[in-house]
Design brief:
The chain contains 15 helices and 16 strands. By secondary structure, it is an alpha/beta fold. It folds into three domains: about 170 residues, Molybdenum Cofactor Biosythetic Enzyme, Chain A; about 60 residues, Alpha-Beta Plaits; about 160 residues, CinA-like (Maf protein, Alpha-Beta Complex), CATH 3.90.950.20. The strands form four sheets. Strands 2-1-3-8-7-6 form a six-stranded mixed β-sheet, sandwiched between helices. The protein has a five-stranded mixed β-sheet with strand order 13-12-14-15-16, sandwiched between helices. It has a three-stranded antiparallel β-sheet with strand order 9-11-10.
């Protein structure tokens, strides 16, 4: 169990009409809470409000008097309902001014040549660079809108964009280290996390029970967090003296299901991106089945921009077939269907991996075979799976299998492995 630091009061403030209306799900607060916990900190209060100036001002003032740390998420974009900077300027009595570091970040993201040739584009984005005078800028390594930090009354405020991958990068790169330094904190626990693909929680519990000595649980805590198609197994200890037991647990765990286990501390998406970067490869994703989930799961990782060439939600067999033929052909051809917007992306397919999912049924009885394609030019492979679940669960499972097939291809691992949710192979796990 992680012991939390007493006395440090932390509030989380989320803003956005979309969250209030239920149009988007708040996953940001869970991530922030998990990261704060590694420093022994917990969130004391969480407030969600809409994009209303008076409400934002009142809530900032209220939280500044009853918190030591406030992390605010959202409202830093370029549209009329992005009001955070203006509200903060009012609260602290500062003028709004264009910040050179914020302008530099936008220019760097698009390139000086592009901005120079398209000045109207910069003007459209300029609002994201207008901040309260005197604030400290928080760099955004994966997006346009920088964050910022300011002290008000009793609290230090950290303001971040609502886009998950931008918020995550700021939390990990800037905000957590700043909090750790300001409050002289040290991590209170050591945690090892492993993602396991395709094996259910009960199966993993069974394997761990059969493999691990009983005495190890005197000092090591075991936890599971199951999501669709993936089980996260967590081992933790609460002091330095228990580290040898944690290392023993890690070593034993790696022997249980080596081909199904992702590297420690990484999601399957992060691991694939790391492998692609190490191999100097990039990837094209074509989705005719998961409603964009497959691409989004990769795009949400901050480091993905280094390897993602592009993703396409294909709604026709012609487009899918054209791409498949392009990668199957050992000679470079550009089918007329793929010219235009895709021309520069497909002109050179060397060192480019391909991942596609297709043939998903639209009916409630989702028993139609889904085909997954992966590989590189001149070397494509495929596999069929059948998932009899509701549509949302099916789309998540297909995304997991597609990513796992690509990972196995890149690591030269077997690709005929069973999945507990695949009707064609699940019996092999019994």
């Amino acid at each position: 169990m992680t012991h939390c630091k007493p006395g440090i009061r932390i509030s989380l403030l989320l803003t956005g009409n979309e969250i209030m209306a239920g149009d988007i799900i708040d996953s940001n607060s869970a991530f922030i809470a998990q990261q704060l916990l590694t420093l022994g900190l917990k969130i004391n209060k969480k407030v969600t409000i809409g994009d209303e100036m008076a409400s934002i001002i009142d809530t900032i003032n209220l939280l500044s008097k009853e918190s030591d740390i406030v992390i605010m998420n959202g409202g830093l974009g370029a549209t009329v309902d992005d009001l955070t900077a203006e509200a903060v300027a009012y609260v602290i009595g500062a003028e709004l001014k264009e910040h050179p570091l914020a302008i530099e970040n936008i220019t760097k993201r698009y390139g000086a040549d592009f901005i120079g040739q398209n000045p109207d584009y910069l003007n459209h984005l300029r609002k994201q660079a207008i901040l309260p005078e005197g604030v400290d800028v928080i760099p955004n390594p994966v997006g346009l809108a920088v964050g910022f930090k300011v002290n008000h009354n009793n609290a230090v405020f950290y303001f971040t964009p609502g886009v998950p991958k931008e918020m995550k990068a700021m939390i990990m790169d800037s905000i957590l280290p700043d909090i750790q330094k300001k409050f002289d904190l040290k991590p209170t626990s050591k945690i090892s996390k492993f993602q396991v693909i395709g094996l259910g929680e009960s199966k993993m519990q069974q394997k761990i029970t059969q493999t691990f000595p009983t005495k190890i649980w005197d000092v090591v805590d075991l936890g599971f967090r199951a999501s669709t198609g993936v089980v996260e197994v967590k081992f933790s200890v609460t002091d330095e003296d228990s580290l040898p037991a944690l290392i023993e647990a890690e070593d034993l765990f790696r022997t249980i299901a080596p081909a199904e286990t992702i590297a420690k501390g990484k999601s399957i998406q992060q691991y694939i991106i790391e492998i692609l970067r190490d191999k100097s490869k990039n990837i094209i994703i074509l989705d005719d089945c998961t409603g964009g989930r497959l691409f989004q799961s990769m795009d949400s990782v901050p480091e993905s921009q280094a390897v993602l060439k592009f993703g396409l939600q294909a709604n026709s067999e012609e487009i899918l077939d054209a791409f498949l033929n392009l990668f199957k052909n050992e000679y470079h051809t550009n089918p007329s269907e793929l010219k235009g917007i895709f021309h520069s992306a497909i002109e050179d397919l060397s060192n480019t991996c391909f991942l596609a999912v297709s043939s998903c049924s639209d009916s409630k009885d989702l028993s139609k075979t889904v085909t997954i394609h992966w590989g590189e030019k001149g070397c494509l492979e495929s596999r069929n799976i059948v998932i009899k679940r509701d549509r949302d669960t099916m789309q998540q499972c297909v995304s997991v299998v597609a990513l796992d097939m690509l990972r196995r291809y890149l690591q030269d691992l077997p690709k005929d492995n069973p999945y507990y949710f695949d009707e064609l192979t699940r019996k092999e796990l019994r």
